[in-house]
UniProtKB/TrEMBL annotation, chain A:
Reported function: Part of the ABC transporter complex UgpBAEC involved in sn-glycerol-3-phosphate (G3P) import. Probably responsible for the translocation of the substrate across the membrane.
Topology within the bilayer: Multi-pass membrane protein
Species whose genome carries this gene: Rhizobium leguminosarum
Protein family per UniProt: Belongs to the binding-protein-dependent transport system permease family.
Name by which UniProt lists this protein: sn-glycerol-3-phosphate transport system permease protein UgpE
Residue ranges of domain ABC transmembrane type-1 in the record: 71-292
Transmembrane segments: 7-25, 75-97, 103-125, 168-189, 210-232, 273-296
GO cellular component terms attached to this protein's record: plasma membrane
InterPro entries in UniProt: MetI-like, MetI-like_sf
Subunit composition and interactions: The complex is composed of two ATP-binding proteins (UgpC), two transmembrane proteins (UgpA and UgpE) and a solute-binding protein (UgpB).
Keyword Transferase assigned: no
GO biological process: transmembrane transport
Gene3D superfamilies: MetI-like (1.10.3720.10)
From TrEMBL, chain C:
PANTHER family (UniProt xref): BLL4140 PROTEIN, SN-GLYCEROL-3-PHOSPHATE TRANSPORT SYSTEM PERMEASE PROTEIN UGPA
Source organism per UniProt: Rhizobium leguminosarum bv. trifolii (strain WSM2304)
Keyword tags: Cell inner membrane, Cell membrane, Membrane, Transmembrane, Transmembrane helix, Transport
Protein task: Part of the ABC transporter complex UgpBAEC involved in sn-glycerol-3-phosphate (G3P) import. Probably responsible for the translocation of the substrate across the membrane.
Keyword hit for Transmembrane: yes
UniProt-recorded name of the protein: sn-glycerol-3-phosphate transport system permease protein UgpA
From TrEMBL, chains D, E:
Domain of life assignment: Bacteria
One MF term in the entry's GO annotations: ATP binding
NCBIfam families membership: PRK11650.1
Membrane topology field: Peripheral membrane protein
Listed Pfam families: ABC_tran (PF00005), TOBE_2 (PF08402)
Database matches in SUPFAM superfamilies: MOP-like, P-loop containing nucleoside triphosphate hydrolases
Native organism: Rhizobium leguminosarum bv. trifolii (strain WSM2304)
Subcellular location: Cell inner membrane
Protein name: ABC transporter related
UniProt xrefs under CDD domains: ABC_MalK_N
Length: 305, 414, 296, 368, 368
């Protein structure tokens, strides 16, 4: 366009530079500190300038901490969370949008409500459930009096027990119980031409074929965007894995990382090693962002209706 | 049997615990212990609570001093002395016993990583400022602090104002109660009294000294951490747990000279014992005989003098049985830095005691510690006077006590 | 929406399709919430064993506790300032990145990075960044001693938290808002240019009004996100201090429940917070959502 | 004639709607009870303004919408409760609704694949269809790489590959530009001539309707206004609605009053002799109005307002008795701008409508 | 005539393009050097196939695209380096690009507001424009609540409220359905007659071009094929491209060979007498072909393939010398299907083109 947008472009450049600096500042500090020695930190606190200890600090992370192994847990949790979220959200959004069922609105509302209350608020009781996933069922049987009947007939009431604590399943499942994915897919489905659905029906495709042959291939960008977002949030989860995993070989890297900051007052945290570990722990998600960044914008364009 | 032990420590201590566990597993074939770090005492306890409700709790769990009453009334643990009647429990030093024993004199938990409050100085810096004698009273500390300040030292004395340090240990060694009913030993109907004792004056002093620039809080230091500030030489004196000795010694190596002694008194007050800190190990209910056997074996193992000595030398935590003191004496290393805290720590805990200095047996005490910190920090920041802060803390603390009383209505105090 | 009757009319299949997610949500969302509500009417012993029905006592206790109100008030302040900034700053960045300038490309990549760095691990860095002696504001402190003291001064600690929160909130909001800006048709800019509106003016008159749906979406999500993100940051940066000045309700619930063993009190607060968040979100929909026009 | 053509021709069946109604929700009936029979192999165009229920009707035939009442039969087979895939009809959508992620081949073959046809047979069938539609060279492309016309052919290929007896189109040309639209129309007509499937074609474009239909079904608010051949509809519109809807520019409609002897316009000028009394609507097509008529009929005086010259012919707009009348003059006759015009309405070209119901009054002036 | 009309008429200026070129990137020139002058107050339609550079040309005039070379002048004022807002021209966009969040009033008033006009004056100006466009009752509505026709009027209102000397339209009718399109066209013509702004109107619809333009500029791949009145373009197309582009159905083009005496079709039939030798392209419009000509001219024998009946006239497609020839017969003459047709091409209606360049060869058969 022929117009003098120079003032705006200059301002925009400055804003972006400031934004980038704001983002990179803490990351730079992480890097510079990670490349100093513990002794340096003891004397100076964190470092403004990089040193030469980066690799030895990283080597210590590998040698002295569980973080490399815990990264496998993180990978399992983030991947499992992302995959399960993508698949389950996809399926439920599919049921809500493409089936004539009276409860679709209610189901969607029930799913969407989960967006409002993060796991941090309900962590205590969630832990209770995770420690025995049958506890709600047991309680239900008790309250309804069914258990008395059962006890009368079979001699003992039903008391099922299954703890998912300290398992990958238990780390993942409560994270998946979340509505964002369903919301995203629903929005996306609503933007698809309706005739596509009708055409497939005319072609004789039933619900499963339509799902597999038409909807799934078309949802790839949304799938990718949701996958990346969920993967990242799964990877960076803190409170739930902290609580739900009790052994260090089940814990995720972020929890392991936080654990490097000692609880007792007796010590100055080994910040160089912690920062080196931070870098190691962030490598996978950062690589993921760098690779899949374009899908993020692409897959999130939620053109309303 | 295969058994589990949950603990809360991290860092150096965690390493030492894991070493002990491996040693135990290597030493015999009958049992196998898995020692699980939970990241902190709090998380460890909360998980134990949930795990107990779900009936998949460990046999052994370590917990810190502040939670003693909560566990005693929980009906989730068995007194160790009942499970292990044959152990020579008398060999545990009185200071450690008092904190964890029932009214009937039976130990409820086996003291494990025991600590107590000590006083640390950077002798090099003190001498630079012309202080040749290591101070032992608050009056001397303040005098030294003024000298340090005059000589340009920015941070003469440092503390974090932690409840354990500024209230519990202070009150105990000055023979002051924190709460009525002998700090709760006599019943759940106790109420807080610290806002009326000399402790209130001491806390007000801290506020004034901080204003004067003689005392710094953790957040006033460059490192944002008072231990780090002391270790880095930024601050010249601090009050801290014996558990921090190893780290300080390591940091000072080759740069500064470190002294460690008993925590300071006010002149005119008779010295009483300091309380045992750190944590102890409980046996949880609901396990079969084989598992209890394993637990017993482990408890016996960590009680062994050589194990305690190794733990002490690795962490700075204090040994708690008299036979270990003998062993240390025999080892010929008694005066080396390795065991520097052992003698002074035990000595401090063994000072004369009164019914008010046995320990703390108050409900929801962990939460009270936070309340106390919150209120006093406001006073340090100038948001309210120290007296108002303490009155507030008492009020909120009493509410906790009343709720605890209500929660455990009808439960007998051991 | 499609017409009802042109949809698949299977009976069991849709149930089967939502069942897995629904099961998880019922188990790990509704059951815990129900449990929290349940506990809020009881005095619950931490290790179980005795639990006493106390009616509304817990609610009365919580409501008459000034600490609760203070934490609630702080939560609101954090939600409002935190989410406003966490939307406004990405908005400004997105408007800038939407222009065809050299910086736009690297910005689009770098600005997403924080999403990959856990709040729990970056908290330490922020604590240092705002350290009164060594951090970015240290020079200020050497001129006016004590002006910046997050370890003592609650407001300063609060600001530190918000800065860290905004840092972590940039990526998601940036991406959504940028996507919104990019879907504005070119002809809309051209029309405004013909009308004599320069590029600055177009930001206000054209771009902002047209990304209202995205702004609304980010605001709503950000409100709940601020609750979540706050936890990890408080836990690593301030621990709720100094003097409780950064104890938001989530953190208070966590500490009351986890370190105070006050399951009943924590559950009661959880229940109240839930009602509050739900009401707040509903209010957003009513007051903001109504003004959002989806016309393009 | 290829094998596919023959198969489709054989499958073609007549479509009978008996009392079919549709209401999307309780209070608004989109289609009141409708009875109609579309002949086997016939090309029916459903024409009507936007929102009149054309798509709804089509989708009920296709099985994409449930009927609220009544029955639909293909031949003797009642189909209203069958799933789309069991009805044996195929559909071409407005924007073609091609699967964007599939190649042309896969798009066409998809219904065969779903029905479980063996691969070899699929390739053969798709090959035959593609050849017939001139798509053989494009089978590997994705829809995004095709021109509008090619896309339409793919959509048609997808529809006919299953050899449906009934072929349905929902405004398949409305997204194209004029040029392409014209070409597609011709292609469609040829295709139908060849394969002879019973075809229902929905549009709101009258040129499409006129050129494609065997019969046109004109819908207005869900009701059938007229169902007849294009010629009959053009020359004998059954109502004012049809008269105004068909023809561009549309039929002129003027209010007239009969005094038992002649019909007069609002300003008193006499249009025609007729033994009618009372108020009527008089209709005449623009191309039926004669200029400067030498005939001895009634002359009407009007004022020229403006003219549109379309090359092949011009359209004049003239003011007559307070209304605007459009006149189509054959092949660019020269008329001076803004002057007086003398018009003649031949009796045989006049249409008379009841002003209340809008229905035509037949044979008012004898046959035409 | 209102005050706004007068102001715009006064501002109307001629537009001169001198050697204007445009290349979006180095290797592809969208517009090769172009020289053209559009008269003050003239209504110019730019017509051409998709992608030929119509929008590009318009946007260069508007200032939304930079020229790659050459100069644009409004009157004596060189404008090619001015920002859009300083050029004094206004534009109506394809999808109108109304601000969806602003009321009709605010949409129209926006440019005035930007220019800092006082509120009272704004209300007055917008009121006048709205009245002129019949929008007075809709000023408070949002664009989403308007019909297509109303939206267009808002877009026009927004354009003319600033009293621009130059009014630009980029395919403003292409999103409308046939009916509405027709009405809008008439409104536009009236509007231009009234306000007389220099108008450039881009379209690829020839009916629009024919009915609206004072002169039509026909573009082909960025080059001007012809720039003349609609009548001249229709009756004297300057090239095969123009001949085929204008007229529906388009002009028939047949290869002929001259032997110095007559022109013959590919199958040897004689079309016309002409003293020409060599190969040519012969053009004749469908409506110019006579059926069963009584005239003594050359008779051509052809076979009828099919017919499209459009009510007002019919189009026959006949095979002649291996090509398909379309014939428009006036007002539904009855011709039996699929029979032999005898055709006559009147000399005066023939067009001759150079087969290599495609340019018209003038006066080959005297005037017509
Ligand atoms: N799913 C639906 N739910 C409710 N009403 C509907 C639905 N689909 C269509 N309608 C209504 O039914 C009427 C007929 O719609 P239909 O789509 O059949 O019209 P149409 O003739 O195809 O129009 P167009 O030419 O615009 O495509 C309209 O008034 C429309 O608003
Ligand atoms: N911004 C651009 N960058 C590069 N090429 C462009 C750009 N805009 C248009 N073009 C190219 O310039 C040529 C002319 O485009 P233009 O939009 O002027 O065509 P048009 O005649 O308006 O076509 P249509 O009728 O489809 O609108 C096309 O080949 C197009 O691909
Ligand atoms: O720091 P520690 O381990 O000595 O423990 C100190 C107090 O006992 C904590 O309650
Ligand atoms: Mg329709
Ligand atoms: Mg264009």
């Amino acid at each position: 366009m022929i117009e003098n947008a120079r003032s705006l472009n200059i301002a925009a450049s400055f804003i972006l530079i400031a934004g980038i600096a704001y983002i990179l500042g803490p990351l730079y500090l992480t890097l510079s500190t990670a490349s100093q020695s513990y002794e340096f930190i003891l004397r100076n606190g964190l470092a403004w300038l990089p040193g030469d200890q980066l690799f030895s600090n990283m080597a210590r992370v590998f040698a002295e901490t569980h973080i490399p192994i815990q990264m496998l847990n993180s990978l399992a949790v983030a991947f499992g969370d992302a995959l399960a979220t993508c698949i389950l959200s996809f399926l439920s959004a599919y049921a809500i949008v493409y089936f004539r069922v009276r409860w679709a609105g209610a189901a969607f509302a029930l799913i969407l409500a989960t967006i409002m209350l993060p796991i941090e608020i309900r962590v205590i009781t969630t832990y209770q459930v995770a420690s025995n996933v049958f506890s709600p069922l047991n309680a239900l049987l008790d309250v309804t009096g069914l258990n008395e009947l059962i006890a009368a007939y079979f001699g003992a009431p039903v008391k099922l027990e299954w703890s998912v604590l300290n398992t990958h399943l238990g780390l993942i499942a409560p994270l998946v119980a979340h509505g964002t994915g369903t919301f995203l897919f629903r929005q996306f489905f609503l933007t698809l031409p309706k005739d596509l659905f009708k055409a497939a029906r005319m072609d004789g495709a039933g619900p499963i074929r339509f799902l597999l042959d038409i909807l799934l291939p078309l949802s790839r960008p949304s799938f990718a965007a949701l996958f990346v977002l969920t993967f990242l949030s799964g990877w960076t989860q803190y409170l739930w894995p902290l609580v739900a995993a009790s052994t260090s070989d089940m814990q995720t890297a972020v929890v392991g990382l936080a654990r490097l900051v000692p609880d007792a007052e007796g010590e100055v945290p080994d910040f160089p090693m912690i920062m080196a570990a931070t870098i190691i722990v962030s490598i996978i998600p950062l690589a993921m962002i760098a690779l899949l960044q374009r899908y993020l914008v692409q897959g999130l364009v939620l053109t309303e209706k | 049997a295969n058994i589990e032990f949950w603990y809360g420590n991290t860092g150096v201590v965690e390493t030492a615990i894991q070493a002990q566990c491996s040693a135990f597993n290597a030493a015999q074939t009958e049992h196998h212990i898995t020692c699980v770090g939970q990241g902190s005492y709090e998380v460890s306890m909360q998980k134990a609570i949930a795990a107990f409700r779900a009936k998949n709790h460990p046999v052994l769990i370590q917990f810190f001093d502040a939670g003693t009453l909560d566990l005693m009334l929980s009906d989730a643990v068995v007194p160790v002395q009942e499970v292990l009647p044959d152990v020579k429990w008398e060999s545990y030093i009185a200071g450690a016993r008092a904190y964890y024993e029932t009214s009937g004199g039976k130990l409820f938990a086996q003291p494990y990583n025991a600590s107590t409050l000590l006083f640390y100085t950077n002798k090099t810096e003190l001498q630079k400022a012309g202080v040749t004698e290591t101070p032992t009273t608050w009056e001397e500390i303040i005098e030294a602090a003024r000298k340090l300040k005059a000589s340009g030292h920015a941070c003469p004395f440092v503390t974090d104002g932690d409840t354990w340090r500024v209230l519990e240990q202070f009150s105990a060694r000055h023979g002051l109660p924190i709460a009525s009913r002998h700090n709760g030993y006599d019943g759940l109907d106790a109420g807080y009294v610290f806002n009326t004792t000399f402790a209130a004056k001491h806390l007000q002093n801290l506020v004034d000294w901080r204003k004067e620039g003689l005392v710094r809080l953790a957040s006033d230091t460059k490192a944002g951490n008072f231990t780090a500030a002391f270790n880095a030489g930024e601050c010249a004196m601090m009050e801290n747990s014996s558990g921090s000795y190893t780290a300080s010694a390591k940091a000072f190596e080759g740069k500064y000279e470190l002294t460690v002694g008993m925590a300071p008194m006010y002149k005119g007050y008779e010295r009483h014992n300091t309380l045992v800190g750190g944590a102890s190990i409980y046996i949880m209910k609901g396990h079969d005989k084989a598992e209890i056997e394993g637990a017993k074996a482990f408890l016996d193992f960590v009680r062994r003098p050589e194990q305690q000595m190794a733990f002490t030398s690795a962490t700075g935590y204090v040994p708690v049985t008299s036979d270990v003191m003998d062993a240390i004496a025999k080892s010929g290393e008694a005066n080396t830095p390795k065991y520097a805290t052992a003698a002074v720590g035990i000595g401090s805990m063994n000072e004369p005691r009164t019914p008010d200095t046995r320990g703390i047996r108050l409900g929801f005490y962990v939460q009270f510690r936070q309340v106390f910190m919150e209120e006093t920090q406001k006073a340090f920041a100038g948001g309210q006077t120290m007296q108002a802060a303490l009155d507030n803390a008492k009020k909120r603390g009493d509410e906790l006590l009343r709720r605890f009383e209500q929660t455990y209505k009808g439960v007998k105090l051991h | 929406m499609m017409s009802e009757s042109s949809l698949f009319s299977h009976r069991w299949l849709p149930l089967l399709l939502v069942a897995p997610l629904m099961l998880l949500i019922v188990l790990f969302f509704y059951a815990p919430i129900f449990q929290a509500f349940y506990w809020s009417f009881f005095l619950e012993r931490p290790f179980g064993g005795g639990s006493m029905f106390v009616g509304w006592d817990n609610f009365i206790r919580v409501i008459s506790d000034p600490e609760f109100w203070e934490a609630g008030w702080r939560t609101i302040i954090f939600m409002v300032t935190g989410s406003t900034l966490a939307v406004a700053i990405p908005l400004i960045l997105a408007v800038a990145a939407d222009r065809k300038i050299a910086m736009s490309l690297p910005a689009r990549n770098v600005l997403v990075w924080p999403k990959g760095v856990a709040g729990a691990s970056i908290g330490v860095v922020f604590a240092f960044l705002f350290n009164p002696f060594a951090g970015v504001l240290a020079p200020l402190n050497s001129i006016f001693p004590g002006i910046w003291a997050p370890g003592i001064d609650g407001t300063d600690a609060f600001i530190t938290l918000i800065a860290a929160h905004v840092w972590g909130g940039i990526p998601f909001n940036f991406v959504i808002l940028l996507a919104g800006l990019q879907s504005i048709p070119r002809s809309m800019h051209q029309a405004a240019a013909m009308d004599g509106a320069g590029p600055w003016r177009r930001i206000l008159d054209v771009q902002l009004p047209l990304i209202m749906p995205q702004l609304f979406l980010t605001l709503v999500l950000e409100f709940t996100e601020s609750v979540t993100s706050a936890f990890a940051l408080i836990d690593t940066i301030t621990k709720g201090g100094p003097g409780g000045s950064t104890t938001l309700l989530v953190y208070k619930i966590y500490t009351d429940g986890f370190s105070g063993y006050d399951l009943s009190g924590a559950s009661t607060q959880t229940a109240i917070l839930m009602v509050f968040v739900v009401l707040l979100t509903a209010a957003q929909f009513v007051f903001l959502g109504r003004r959002v026009s989806y016309d393009r | 004639m290829t094998a596919i053509d023959m198969a489709i021709r054989a499958a073609a069946a007549n479509i009978t709607l008996s009392g079919v109604t549709k209401a999307y929700d309780a209070d608004t009936t989109v289609i009141p009870p409708m009875d109609v029979e579309l002949g086997a192999g016939e090309f029916t165009v459903v024409l009507g303004p936007s929102g009149c229920g054309k798509s709804t009707l089509l989708q009920m035939i296709a099985g994409l919408e449930r009927v609220s009442g009544g029955a639909i039969a293909f031949g003797d087979r009642e189909v209203q409760d069958l799933e789309p895939k069991h009805r044996g009809c195929a559909m071409v959508f407005q924007n073609y609704a091609l699967y964007p992620h599939m190649s042309v081949f896969d798009n066409i073959a998809y219904s065969l694949k779903v029905s479980g046809m063996a691969k070899a047979e699929r390739i053969e069938r798709v090959g035959a269809v593609a050849k017939m539609l001139g798509l053989s060279d494009y089978l590997a492309r994705k829809p995004g790489q095709l021109s509008g016309g090619q896309r339409q052919r793919v959509a048609i290929g997808r529809a006919i590959v299953r050899e449906p007896g009934v072929l349905l189109f929902d405004e398949p040309l409305s997204n194209l530009d004029a040029q392409l639209r014209h070409d597609m129309r011709v292609e469609l007509a040829e295709l139908h001539r060849r394969i002879g499937a019973t075809t229902v074609f929905v549009t709101h474009d009258q040129v499409e309707a006129m050129t494609l239909a065997d019969r046109i079904l004109i819908l207005n608010k869900g009701r059938i206004e007229q169902f007849d051949t294009p010629k009959a509809i053009y020359h004998h519109p059954a109502s004012v609605f049809v008269a105004k809807f068909i023809g561009a520019p549309p039929m002129n409609i003027l209010p007239v009053t009969g005094d038992g002897a002649v019909l007069r316009l609002a300003d008193g000028q006499v249009v025609a002799a007729a033994r009618l009394t009372g108020a009527y609507q008089l209709g005449i097509r623009p191309e039926d109005i004669l200029l400067d008529a030498k005939a001895d009929g009634h002359k009407l005086t009007s004022t020229l307002r403006f003219r549109e010259d379309l090359g092949s012919h011009a359209v004049l707009a003239a003011e007559l008795a307070g209304s605007v009348v459009r006149i189509a003059t054959p092949f660019g006759a020269d008329v001076s701008d803004h002057g007086q015009l003398s018009l003649h309405f031949p009796d045989s070209r006049l249409h008379l409508f009841d002003p209340a119901s809008g229905r035509a009054i037949p044979s008012a002036f004898g046959a035409n």
